[in-house]
Design goal:
Elements lengths: L43 E15 L8 E14 L5 E14 L4 E2 L18 E7 L4 E8 L3 E2 L7 E14 L4 E11 L1 H12 L5 E2 L5 H6 L2
Parallel strand pairs: 1-10
Antiparallel strand pairs: 1-2, 2-6, 2-7, 3-4, 3-5, 3-8, 8-9
């Protein structure tokens, strides 16, 4: 898979490329261009990418600081490239594991029973009264927490997907747009190697990821 964001660390907010095809299709099998303005430009732009990667977490209750899970973290700046004033806009993301047999696992199917203390819920960020050309700083956007047991699965590819859910009160319109999909298999494999060595980036309960990403 190849996208125009290949030179960026995150590849966020760009024309969509799906796992099995090169274009996004709606339920009616029509090409979905909801992420584009009428002039063909992207509705939402990535102005600055401060951090995007898997962060390996260790258990704060363990004695050896052994890794127990991983989470994908994004920190950056977005721009409203439309003429709309959004009453609210919510951005959220998820991780998709594509297995060797073709099956896919996402945040809703991740089994947290490996460690019930772990939260499998991804967070989101919301901007209110988002005006045209206005900048939006995303402080910390996390995927669901993935137990390290999933690194033993026969994973072929790993993707991140990002959505923006907008509410336009002026035009009485709401839409949830899949604005980005990126292959992050290389980052998954690096996290896997770190886990094999028993390494981690921070603990789960302290979870001071904002400090961690600022220092990278």
């Amino acid at each position: 898979m190849k996208t125009k964001f290949s030179t960026l660390l995150l590849i966020l907010l760009t024309p969509i490329v799906f796992i099995t095809c090169s274009k996004q299709f709606s339920a009616n099998n029509e090409v979905d261009t909801s992420y584009l303005n009428e002039d063909g430009t992207d509705k939402f732009l990535l102005e600055k990418n401060k951090f995007s990667n898997f962060v390996v977490l260790s258990s704060s209750t363990g004695r050896n600081n052994d890794p127990v899970s991983t989470v994908y973290v994004f920190k950056g700046v977005l721009k409203n490239n439309t003429k709309n004033i959004y009453k609210s806009a919510t951005v959220e993301g998820e991780v998709i594991l594509v297995l060797e047999n073709g099956n896919e696992l996402n945040c809703s199917s991740i089994d947290s029973s490996f460690d019930p203390v772990l939260s499998s819920i991804a967070n989101s960020q919301t901007k209110y009264d988002w005006k045209p050309n206005e900048i939006w700083s995303i402080d910390e956007l996390k995927s669901c927490t993935i137990p390290i047991e999933y690194f033993n699965y026969p994973v072929k590819q790993v993707f991140t997907q990002y959505y923006i859910d907008t509410k336009d009160q002026i035009n009485n319109a709401s839409e949830k747009i899949l604005v980005s999909q990126r292959d992050v298999t290389d980052r998954w494999l690096k996290a896997k190697e770190k886990i094999k060595r028993g390494g981690s980036d921070c603990t789960d309960y302290s979870f001071d990821i904002s400090k961690y990403v600022e220092s990278k």
